[in-house]
């Protein structure tokens, strides 16, 4: 998104404005240590909705009553302001260019009380100007149901942007951390989850569609879990139909329909129609009843025989388990010698050595090794026996069920015979069997399994259609992978211009949009090895890895144009510290050699380090110019550093980038007697501050 900061400033107790005005492209605030350069990034962060007030204690916090930032977003000026340690913030859109362009126009009178709102409302109001219009970002409502009070997932705010915009002094060359605010896992996850929103890969409707898809997928899993139970009920219905058909044949002596239960239940509706049309016919001389009973008795005898064999096997397994356990227990109690001493025997007459003892000792050692191996195996024997015992138990249970079913069928045949002996008509019993078949098939027609299968089929169709819709209209994963690839390519181009150590050249940085991990990738045969930042040696490698990643990200963001919601703004605080530690810079002018002499750990010649720092600034200028040429958007990079008077490559002079130079004092200047004299002759303090003394802004 096209955006740049116009002013960062504060107002003191005397209603004097102290500010730095910035432009698009590279901006430098230079000065010695402890002049407040790093306060600029903290003031911006605070005015951009931070819940913490982290402006360094000192002259700034002593004199300031209001902090403000003017930021231009898509050609609209937004004025953001806050009082120190307050939970409210000021927000206004400023359409008057004559006001927005002049930092001194923002005196205390500008910030009327009615425009201060609670910080949460402030973040929403500002967020809407950046396109953050999301109220529900849950992709699965089940996650919401598990939260306390069934609260919504945190919606993205402007605070997530700061992870892409701010590289503080303690972060810009850090080997353990890359992104601001990622020390808190919750905030880190919000940024990662919000990336697809910030890059406009999704819109609000996406989450509604995703929620419905998640509900359908969950419902499908529930139905699929119910289906086996319903199908088991159907299998039992098939057994009942088969039994009723057999009963009918036994009592009537005829076959009601051809094909048996399998044919009838293949299409329950057609099967029921066949049964209802089938006429009850009798064969009084049939011996079907006797034949079925003999078959059942024969099958029962076989099942009983199998049961006896299984019971014997089960008894042997239990006995074996007990024996093995006793064996292991006794083996553990056998004392084991830890040391054995022997020596070769010698003939007392001829003094000849005999090797028999050594040979026997070797054989004993082999025997002990064998025994130890067997003992090790014995420890696992109970486990295998227990598994076999479980198999036998399950087989016995199945055998018992089969016997119970068979005995029930035999009892049914016997009841038929008893009914006939009690003068019940053969026709009546046959009709009863037929009705039983009809009732069972009707139950199958109404069974849950068929309904479940229909519902499952319907859900699968809807789920696939929704997945196709999400893939066609959003295709988030494909876009994320393409973004990763593009950022990787950009890091290759940008990283090649920085002075990475020889071991990491050519640099091959890769970045994951899923985890936000950064690594240098090398090939070891067919395997890819990831070398993460913490293992990449010196501070220069860490600095250039940070800078390379963030420049690549912002180039990618700019390539998306206004679709990307992340502002094209990047703060780099003290990037030269890996070459020239800031605490050593205390002179009135930047003196690289003086700093080098104080740095006992220096390894390179100071001129090499100065050249490396100059190259860094040159590449930043080149990056902004090239990005504008390629995308139409010129990023804004604000660098606060103590390096000065550098000779850059290209036509741009370093001093043309400098927006403020603080060597004797920084952002806040308390009026002197000379200023009061100037005011007494009609020249305002603000005019003197901003025009008469241009190096103090």
Average pLDDT value? 82
Provide the spatial order of strands within the biggest beta sheet.
Answer: 2-1-4-5-6-7
Structural class determined from secondary elements: alpha/beta
Query: Please, how many helices?
Result: 20
Query: How much helicity do the residues have?
Result: 40-55%
Radius of gyration: 43 Å
Shape: flat
Low-pLDDT parts are 673-697
Share of residues in strands: 5-15%
Please specify the SSE layout and strand pairing.
Elements: E1 3-12, E2 17-21, E3 25-31, H1 39-47, H2 59-63, E4 64-73, E5 76-82, E6 88-94, H3 97-100, E7 116-118, H4 119-129, H5 141-146, H6 162-165, E8 166-167, H7 185-198, H8 204-252, H9 260-266, H10 268-277, H11 288-333, E9 345-346, E10 353-354, H12 356-421, H13 426-445, H14 448-473, H15 476-495, E11 509-511, E12 518-524, E13 527-532, H16 539-559, E14 569-573, H17 592-598, H18 606-631, E15 636-641, E16 658-662, H19 673-680, H20 685-692
Parallel strand pairs: 3-15, 3-16, 8-14, 14-15
Antiparallel strand pairs: 1-2, 1-4, 4-5, 5-6, 6-7, 9-10, 11-12, 12-13
Helix pairs in contact: 8-9, 8-11, 8-12, 8-13, 8-14, 9-10, 10-13, 11-12, 15-16, 16-18
């Amino acid at each position: 998104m096209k955006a740049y900061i116009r002013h960062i400033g504060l107002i003191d107790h005397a209603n004097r404005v102290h500010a730095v005005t910035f432009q698009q492209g590279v901006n430098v605030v230079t000065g010695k240590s402890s002049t407040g350069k790093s306060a600029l990034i903290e003031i911006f962060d605070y005015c951009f909705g931070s819940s913490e007030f982290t402006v360094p204690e000192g002259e700034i916090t002593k004199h300031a009553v209001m902090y403000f930032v003017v930021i231009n977003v898509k050609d609209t000026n937004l004025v953001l302001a806050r009082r120190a340690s307050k939970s409210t913030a000021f927000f206004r859109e400023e359409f008057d260019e004559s006001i927005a362009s002049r930092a001194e126009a923002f005196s205390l009178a500008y910030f009327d009380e009615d425009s201060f709102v609670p910080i949460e409302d402030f973040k929403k109001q500002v967020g809407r100007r950046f396109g953050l219009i999301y109220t529900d970002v849950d992709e699965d409502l089940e996650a919401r149901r598990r939260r306390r009070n069934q609260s919504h997932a945190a919606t993205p705010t402007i605070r997530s942007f700061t992870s892409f915009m701010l590289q503080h002094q303690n972060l810009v060359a850090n080997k353990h951390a890359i992104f601001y605010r990622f020390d808190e896992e919750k905030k880190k996850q919000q940024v990662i989850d919000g990336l697809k929103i910030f890059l406009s890969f999704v819109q609000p409707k996406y989450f509604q569609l995703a929620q419905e898809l998640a509900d359908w997928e969950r419902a499908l899993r529930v139905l699929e879990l119910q289906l086996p139970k319903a199908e088991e009920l159907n299998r039992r219905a098939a057994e009942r139909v088969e039994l009723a058909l057999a009963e009918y044949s036994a009592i009537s002596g005829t076959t009601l329909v051809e094909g048996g239960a399998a044919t009838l239940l293949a299409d329950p509706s057609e099967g029921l129609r066949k049964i209802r049309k089938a006429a009850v016919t009798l064969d009084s001389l049939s011996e079907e009843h006797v034949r079925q009973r003999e078959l059942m008795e024969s099958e029962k005898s076989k099942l009983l025989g199998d049961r006896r064999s299984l019971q014997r096997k089960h008894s042997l397994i239990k006995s074996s388990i007990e024996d093995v356990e006793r064996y292991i227990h006794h083996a553990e109690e056998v004392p084991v010698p830890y040391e054995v001493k022997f020596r070769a025997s010698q003939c007392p007459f001829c003094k000849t050595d005999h090797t028999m003892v050594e040979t026997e000792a070797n054989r004993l050692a082999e025997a002990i090794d064998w025994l130890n191996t067997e003992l090790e195996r014995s420890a696992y024997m109970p486990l295998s026996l227990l598994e076999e015992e479980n198999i036998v138990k399950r087989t016995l249970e199945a055998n018992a069920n089969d016997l119970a079913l068979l005995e029930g069928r035999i009892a049914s045949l016997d009841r038929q015979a008893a009914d006939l002996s009690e003068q019940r008509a053969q026709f009546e019993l046959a009709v009863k069997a037929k009705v039983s078949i009809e009732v069972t098939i009707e139950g199958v027609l109404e069974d849950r399994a068929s309904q479940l299968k229909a519902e499952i089929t319907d859900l699968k169709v809807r789920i696939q259609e929704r997945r196709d819709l999400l893939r066609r209209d959003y295709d988030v994963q494909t876009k994320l992978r393409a973004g990763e690839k593009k950022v990787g390519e950009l890091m290759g181009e940008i990283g090649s211009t920085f002075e990475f150590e020889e071991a990491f050249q050519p640099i091959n940085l890769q970045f994951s949009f899923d985890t936000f991990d950064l690594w240098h990738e090398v090939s070891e045969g067919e395997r890819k090895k990831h070398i993460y930042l913490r293992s990449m040696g010196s501070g220069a490698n860490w600095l250039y890895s940070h800078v390379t990643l963030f420049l690549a990200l912002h180039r990618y963001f700019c390539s998306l144009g206004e679709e990307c919601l992340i502002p094209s703004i990047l703060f780099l605080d003290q990037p030269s510290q890996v070459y020239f530690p800031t605490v050593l810079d205390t002179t009135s002018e930047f003196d690289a050699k003086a700093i080098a002499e104080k740095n006992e750990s220096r390894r390179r010649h100071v001129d090499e380090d100065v050249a490396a720092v100059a190259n860094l600034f040159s590449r930043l200028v080149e990056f902004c110019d090239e990005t504008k040429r390629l995308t139409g958007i010129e990023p804004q990079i604000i660098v606060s550093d103590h390096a000065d008077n550098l000779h850059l490559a290209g036509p741009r002079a370093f001093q043309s980038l400098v927006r403020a130079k603080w060597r004797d004092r920084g952002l806040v200047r308390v009026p002197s007697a000379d200023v009061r004299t100037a005011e007494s002759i009609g020249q305002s303090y603000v005019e003197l501050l901003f025009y008469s003394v241009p190096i103090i802004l």
